[in-house]
């Protein structure tokens, strides 16, 4: 006999299905008038601090076809490296930046976010995490949401010291690097096969 | 001096978001579940790279009451013309959002979506021959209260056929999306209805191997909370990942 740990079990995940847009981006699929604006549609407000960028990319399946029915969510720190979250206790984040974005991919599997470049964030055991954006992808055929991160191609030195990138086999690190081109950062996500994106168990 | 040190430790304790307990992946469906054909080309083939949650996963977005409209949790009326309502069996769905430590998760957003009473979604890619209900959109959301409770009013969705096997049908279900206090808790799942014989036959339900885990997705008929002469009720509690204790680790973030 032994005492009970008295813990509940996490509710199991189920796929978001092909009609995920009804729930997450109702205005995109024509359910208008219920909510004036889809959640996560606007990350920045006037007066936001930092460098404005657009993150754009495609989600592709194992056959290289666009995953045109997925929803992509991102979560990131502000330009100073602070999260706009009640769980952020280091200081107040930029009030003109939500840090949370949500986008339904289009017919070509393309998503895009107008945001700011995040600052570095403290990592475990005194390490510093290079500027990065957390991604979460759901769709028909995805049984449990996929977590990944996008880092920045113009942060080579910081990326080298990043405690998460250091856990990834070097050959696969490029799948986590967004390619900076002016104000746009290109970041494709490959669910399976050649150059498969690294996904995380966090 | 000693008192000051104590104060500092206490404040450090309060000022640190704790990491999440590791996810029990055996309870969830695997990415690759060939009985559900859509997963075959959308399942990563490589192992996930594991690391303990950092600040980026321990924090998460919070939404205020300002995003919630008055009819957001009333699917019977939130898309209906004035004075009209959606067709179907009227039900109330309610429950609590808890974490694995059994604590309520207050002030978090719960979004839900579903087919109408005939099993038809209001969506451009939907081709089922059952008719649309002009008064039913199928979308709603709630913010949990201080005890983690949420509730909404809707109609019981119909079962519907879908292209997987020749004759596969989804049991009646409601899709749920839940935010926690940290991005690592993000969860999308589906709620089924007690007593539905279609649950056991569903290839999507069967992506989950553990019968106890499937049972956790089946809402109980809750006649005690029914509204007499109006709606029956179903209770559906949702459990998000819990944060682990940080004994001997009460240091500020990054130290
Ligand atoms: Fe569905």
Features:
heterodimer, A: 202 residues, mainly beta, Protocatechuate 3,4-Dioxygenase, subunit A, 9-stranded mixed β-sheet, two-stranded antiparallel sheet, 5% helix, B: 255 residues, 23% strand, globular, disordered N terminus, binds fe (ii) ion, dioxygenase (chain A), Intradiol_dOase_C (chain A), Intradiol_RC_Dioxygenase (chain A)
Write the layout of secondary structure elements.
The complex is a heterodimer of chains A (202) and B (255).
Chain A: H1 20-24, E1 52-60, E2 71-76, E3 100-104, E4 110-116, E5 121-122, E6 128-129, E7 132-138, E8 146-152, H2 156-160, E9 177-181, E10 184-186, E11 189-190, E12 200-201
Parallel strand pairs in A: 1-10, 1-11, 8-9
Antiparallel strand pairs in A: 1-4, 2-3, 2-7, 5-6, 7-8, 9-10
Chain B: H1 2-14, E1 49-50, H2 55-58, E2 90-99, E3 109-113, E4 139-143, E5 149-155, E6 160-162, E7 168-170, E8 173-178, E9 187-193, H3 211-215, E10 218-221, E11 232-235, E12 238-240
Parallel strand pairs in B: 2-11, 2-12, 9-10
Antiparallel strand pairs in B: 2-5, 3-4, 3-8, 6-7, 8-9, 10-11
Bound molecules: fe (ii) ion.
CATH topology of chain A: Protocatechuate 3,4-Dioxygenase, subunit A
Ions, cofactors and other ligands present here are: fe (ii) ion
The name CATH uses for the topology of chain B is: Protocatechuate 3,4-Dioxygenase, subunit A
Oligomeric category: heterodimer
- Weakly predicted, low-confidence segments of chain A: none
Tally of domains of chain B: 1
Q: What portion of residues of chain A belong to β-strands? A: 25-35%
Sheet with most strands of chain B: 9 strands, mixed
pLDDT averaged residue by residue of chain A: 97
CATH superfamily of chain A: Aromatic compound dioxygenase
CATH architecture of chain B: Sandwich
What is the element string of chain A, with H for helices and E for strands?
HEEEEEEEEHEEEE
Number of domains of chain A: 1
> In CATH, what is the class of chain B?
Mainly Beta
Main β-sheet of chain A, in a few words?
Answer: 9 strands, mixed
- Indicate the CATH class of chain A: Mainly Beta
Which shape of chain B, going by the Cα principal axes?
globular
Mean pLDDT across residues of chain B: 93
> Which residues of chain B sit in consecutive blocks of at least 5 with pLDDT less than 50?
1-14
Structural class of chain B: mainly beta
């Amino acid at each position: 006999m032994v005492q009970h740990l008295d813990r509940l079990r996490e509710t199991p995940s189920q796929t978001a299905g092909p009609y995920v847009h009804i729930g997450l981006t109702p205005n995109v699929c024509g359910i208008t008038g219920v909510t004036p604006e889809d959640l996560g549609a606007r990350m920045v407000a006037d007066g936001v601090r930092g460098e404005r960028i657009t993150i754009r990319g495609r989600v592709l399946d194992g056959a290289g076809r666009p995953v045109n029915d997925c929803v992509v969510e991102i979560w990131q720190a502000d330009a100073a490296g602070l999260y706009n979250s009640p769980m952020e206790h280091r200081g107040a984040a930029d009030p003109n930046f939500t840090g949370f974005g949500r986008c339904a991919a289009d017919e070509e599997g393309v998503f895009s976010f107008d945001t700011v470049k995040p600052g570095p964030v403290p990592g475990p055991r005194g390490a510093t995490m290079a500027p990065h954006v957390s991604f979460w992808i759901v769709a028909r055929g995805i049984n449990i949401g996929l977590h990944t991160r996008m880092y920045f191609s113009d942060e080579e030195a910081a990326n080298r010291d990043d405690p998460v990138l250091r856990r990834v086999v070097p050959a696969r690190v490029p799948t986590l690097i967004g390619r900076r081109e002016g104000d746009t950062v290109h970041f494709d996500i490959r669910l399976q096969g050649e150059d498969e994106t690294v996904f995380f168990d966090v | 001096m000693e008192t000051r040190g104590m104060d500092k430790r206490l404040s450090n304790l309060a000022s640190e978001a704790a990491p999440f307990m590791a996810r029990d992946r055996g309870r969830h469906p695997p990415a690759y579940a060939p009985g559900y054909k859509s997963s075959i080309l959308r399942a990563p083939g490589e192992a996930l790279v594991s690391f303990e949650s950092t600040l980026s996963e321990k924090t998460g977005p919070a939404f205020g009451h300002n995003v919630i409209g008055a009819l957001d949790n009333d699917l019977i009326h939130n898309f209906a013309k004035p004075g009209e309502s959606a067709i179907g069996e009227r039900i109330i769905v309610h429950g609590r959002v808890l974490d694995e430590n059994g604590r309520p998760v207050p002030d978090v957003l719960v979004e839900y979506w579903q087919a109408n009473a005939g099993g038809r979604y209001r969506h451009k890619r939907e081709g089922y021959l059952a008719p649309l209900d002009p008064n039913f959109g199928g979308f709603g959301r709630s913010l949990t209260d201080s005890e983690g409770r949420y509730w909404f009013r809707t109609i019981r969705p119909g079962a519907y056929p879908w292209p997987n096997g020749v004759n596969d049908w989804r049991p009646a279900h409601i899709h749920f999306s839940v935010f926690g206090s940290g991005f690592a808790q993000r969860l999308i799942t589906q709620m089924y209805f007690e007593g539905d014989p279609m649950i056991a036959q569903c290839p999507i339900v069967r992506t989950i191997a553990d019968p106890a885990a499937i049972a956790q997705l089946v809402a109980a008929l809750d006649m005690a909370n029914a509204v007499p002469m109006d709606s029956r009720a179903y209770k559906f509690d949702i459990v998000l990942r819990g944060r682990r204790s940080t004994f001997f680790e009460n240091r500020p973030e990054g130290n």
